[in-house]
Amino acid sequence: MPTSPAERSNRPTATLVARDVYAGYGGPPIVRGATVQVGEGEIVTVVGPNGAGKSTLLKAIAGLLPVEKGSVALAGREIAGTHTHRLARLGLGYVPQSRDVFDPLTVRENLEMGGYLLRRAEVKARIADVVEVLPALDRLLGRRASKLSGGERKMVAIGRALMSRPSVLLLDEPTSGLSAELSRRLLTLDIRRLAAGGTSILLVEQKALAALEISDWGYVLAAGAAVISAPASELLARPDLGEVFLGRVQESLSAPASPG
Fold it and tell me: Is 96 helix (H, G, I), strand (E, B) or coil?
């Protein structure tokens, strides 16, 4: 996949690079040669039609699916094939679309589970740090997760992932099932706050326009491959944006799209 001049020269130092990745569920690969990267403190969104392989790509990067071919590097270190618990130690966090909290536990206990890599003496202070980043958690700490709303559960899931101090956070459809207001808050406030604090974010999101509006860079996946790589602002400015989201534009943005 060609890259634009902006990708080569203007992006921050890459913390995560997935290159020519092939992955799937045992049959023909769903992801077929996808390449994406995330720089320090960047928000990067992957968009594309249903079935393009967006969530599969995140699962492969997160170690939940085998990388059949290609490479995944975190801070320059190859991590393809690394167990998920080891990836957490190396600085990779992952929040799945569903089954993202432990229902029988309180919010505080969920956060403590996320801090299993920390020394016991550090856990309380780290919970305070996470609550500072996600203030909505403060009033929920004693509540059982099974009693939470969808938006509250998502905050807990993100908070739990943050407990291990990830340098890169993978978010799979974080606004799924949330109201319009909660989705707006999550994207425009919470995720932006994480990136401003230095966490690199790789995001797959059904509300593609809203996600691109807060993103630094965007990739369009079609048939398992990244067919467009460009600054998010350039993707949003394309006159053929609808065709882009449907995966019908098979070109790179190495040059701006022609008007009209």
Answer: coil
Any idea where the domains of the chain sit in the sequence? 5-98+166-245
Q: Which residue has the higher pLDDT, 249 or 31?
A: 31
Mapped onto helix, strand or coil, the DSSP state of residue 217 is: strand
DSSP string, 104-126: TSBHHHHHHHHTTTS-HHHHHHH
Tens-place pLDDT, residues 178-205:
888 888 888 998 899 889 989 999 999 9
Residues contacting residue 2 through CB under 8 Å, at least 6 positions apart = 252, 254
CA atoms lying within 13 Å on the CB side of residue 209: 4
DSSP per-residue codes, 141-167:
TTSBGGG--HHHHHHHHHHHHHTT--S
| 71, 19 contact by CB (below 8 A) | yes
Element containing residue 212 per DSSP (H, E): helix 208-213
DSSP symbol at 246 = T
Using an 8 Å Cβ cutoff, are 18 and 34 in contact? Answer: yes
Q: What is the pLDDT of residues 27-79, one digit of tens each?
A: 999 999 999 999 999 999 999 888 899 999 999 999 999 999 999 999 999 99
- Tell me the backbone φ, ψ of residue 124, rounded to 5 degrees: -60, -45
Q: CATH fold of 5-98+166-245, please? A: Rossmann fold (3.40.50)
pTM given for the model = 0.87
Rounded CA-CA distance 72/213 in Å is 26
- Picking from 29, 93, 113, 40, the residue whose alpha carbon sits closest to that of residue 66 is 29
